[in-house]
Amino acid sequence: MKILVAVKRVVDYAVKVRVKPDRTGVETANVKMSMNPFCEIAVEEALRLREAGAAAEVVAATIGPAQSADTLRTALAMGADRAVHVLHDADPARPLLPLAVAKILRAVALEEKPGLVILGKQEVECPEFGVAWPAYQNAFRYYTRMTCWFLEFWICNCSLGISTDLRLNQPRYATLPNIMKAKSKVIKKITPQELNVDIRSDLEVVEVNEPPKRKAGVILSSVDELLDKLKTEARVL
Amino acid sequence: MPYQFRIAAARRCVLTTPLNSQRGRNYATRSSSSPASLPASRRSPQVETMSRRAAERLLRRLGPLAVEPPARVQKRTFSTTATHIQRNPAYSVLNSDDVSYFKSILGDSGVVQDEDRVAVANVDWMGKYRGASQLLLLPKSTTEVSKILSYCNSRRLAVVPQGGNTGLVGGSVPVYDEVIVSLVGMDKIISFDNVNGILTCEAGCVLENLSTFVENEGFIMPLDLGAKGSCHIGGNISTNAGGLRFIRYGSLHGNVLGLEVVLANGTVLDMLSTLRKDNTGYDLKHLFIARRNLGEILSAFEFMDHHCIDLAMKHLEGVQNPLPASPYKFYVLIETTGSDESYDKAKLEAFLLRSMEDGLVADGVIAQDISQASNFWRIREGISEASVKVGAVYKYDLSIPVEKLYDIVEEMRIRVEVLGYGHLGDGNLHLNILSSKYDESVLAQIEPFVYEWTSAQRGSISAEHGLGLMKAEKIHYSKSPEAVSLSMVS
């Protein structure tokens, strides 16, 4: 059985994310980029399944600019067998929507024909764009849905899809011998046009702002004061 | 030339190991330091730390209280290791008038007599040295420090300055009943020049806070230690700390541009503004020494033996062994810092792969993101912490020629349980002997063998920890008597 794992290159989650001064997006120049931590867990899970004998091959896939190949190399260095790189230069004003991501992944899956697809539950940069799954589900017309600890299963058509959450496993480090081997592993490059996927986006990002700073809490002296504040300041009563 | 000798000695006195056996000497510092900026290829030029005239003034002003030749009278039976220094009767004993005077300068909050708090300040980080002080003072400004010291000078009260109290040689805690002057209240960052990369701050700033502050501005502190969460920059400078980035940024001699110092008699010596390039050229660092391969991007090269790794795995929380496959005898942690990530990564991988092909390296892992890198550092920095959990630790910090570095560990392993790790890039071994408790019989197995062995290799018995109380009398293993007498201030 083949396992397809989708990974994404994001701002390293230990880095403090900043908004660009012109407010068109998040600062990504000269910032450390790494594999999304949820995706690392997904890759680790796929590798463990292969080591347990449940799968024969692990294929990593990503959608992104040329630098995303680094993330694929990391997945290969962890132990994946092959990789697929869908080249797409992201325009910050018109980001790739979950539906487009789902369509691309579907096209890749139809070509690769895996028995299992594993994704990270969400990405750290834009969690609201997080899971491509809802769209993916619709694309595959799921029949049943079971939820268990840290995993959700969708039985979809031919493939089983799993999304992975934190603490499912501890991702392994990339060892030197594996890094050496990864250099000779194949990364197939394709474009969305070759996959016949329409990725036009209906949304345009107008402005990106930091969330408002959390205001300090206030210690109140009586219930009357609380009621007063709820009425006049918070306006919830 | 004798004149130049005095300068070298003066610097060593003030900036390297001030807390020698000279117990009466005390001062607090406000310091400005110049961290190297990122991209690391552009670094600001390092300048002299003290002008010649300032050094001479310092020598003359450190009056009679500065010298206390240790008198070998009796061994103290104490929970600490042997200290042969007897309390000098020339020092006065604290009385209530003194306490009220201090309260008038510092306010009630600045004078601590509460037993529990004073007890904590009396013991060093390893629990090896315990003083008997009854008073802890918390000044908040240079003027307050100056007033404290001038008063103590006139009353002949012994004083010990204390920073983060993370020293490993008993230099930060009282020997007897000295008044503890803690700089924990002087933790303000005064200014930061983010064009030249010059930080001016008070001596009580915690190193980790300074690191976070300058990193936010895109700079990096030139030193990093395992104790960074607690140690103060004032303490680092006064002991010329080495640490994990020494290999890249050099010693603090080259990174400290100026100091404001309070002398033992309370005089404030402002050397923050008198800094110019000194024409003796003694401390000018040669920044661009040609090195092989990773030289220009290498920022740390640490080694540890498998005993250290086992200990760290057993006693530290939240760490996983990066190389669980087979236990190796030695592990090395390498860090590079540079301006171009992909270039550095390629270089590091090429270096490591070549080392594997040549058979120098058996296996390795490369951290793929910041959190993996922090995990690696947690293991290395946590060895000290883990060793303290076992029981008592005897720590030795030796500078030894690299080819013979591990021989002493193997020799000691025959007699005691020992850990060897350290800054391989600087030839600095941290020899740690573990024992269930501090015990004279264990000590006898270690000393003076370790010092004699190091001396025979022409190494240093204190590479970066300082002499403190622990090695105050051992300086002769690494310095000739003539050099020692020049170091002693007249």
Automatic annotation (TrEMBL), chain A:
GO terms for biological process: amino acid catabolic process; fatty acid beta-oxidation using acyl-CoA dehydrogenase. The keyword Cell inner membrane does not apply. The keyword NAD does not apply. Its main location: mitochondrion. It is found in: Mitochondrion matrix. It comes from the Eukaryota. Keywords: Electron transport, Mitochondrion, Transport. Residues 23-199 form the Electron transfer flavoprotein alpha/beta-subunit N-terminal domain. InterPro entries: ETF_a/b_N, ETF_b, ETF_beta_N, Rossmann-like_a/b/a_fold. GO terms for molecular function: electron transfer activity. One of its GO terms (cellular component) is mitochondrial matrix. Heterodimer of an alpha and a beta subunit. Belongs to the ETF beta-subunit/FixA family. The electron transfer flavoprotein serves as a specific electron acceptor for several dehydrogenases, including five acyl-CoA dehydrogenases, glutaryl-CoA and sarcosine dehydrogenase. It transfers the electrons to the main mitochondrial respiratory chain via ETF-ubiquinone oxidoreductase (ETF dehydrogenase). This is Electron transfer flavoprotein subunit beta. It comes from Eleusine coracana subsp. coracana. The lineage of its organism: Eukaryota, Viridiplantae, Streptophyta, Embryophyta, Tracheophyta.
TrEMBL record, chain B:
Residues 28-44 have a biased composition (Low complexity). SUPFAM superfamilies: FAD-binding/transporter-associated domain-like, FAD-linked oxidases, C-terminal domain. Its EC number is 1.1.99.39. Its cofactor is FAD. Residues 21-49 are annotated as: Disordered. GO terms for molecular function: (R)-2-hydroxyglutarate dehydrogenase activity; FAD binding. It holds the Pfam family FAD_binding_4. GO terms for cellular component: mitochondrion. Residues 129-308 form the FAD-binding PCMH-type domain. Keywords: FAD, Flavoprotein, Oxidoreductase. It comes from the Eukaryota. Coiled coil: none annotated. PANTHER family: D-2-HYDROXYGLUTARATE DEHYDROGENASE, MITOCHONDRIAL (PTHR43716:SF1). This is D-2-hydroxyglutarate dehydrogenase. It comes from Eleusine coracana subsp. coracana.
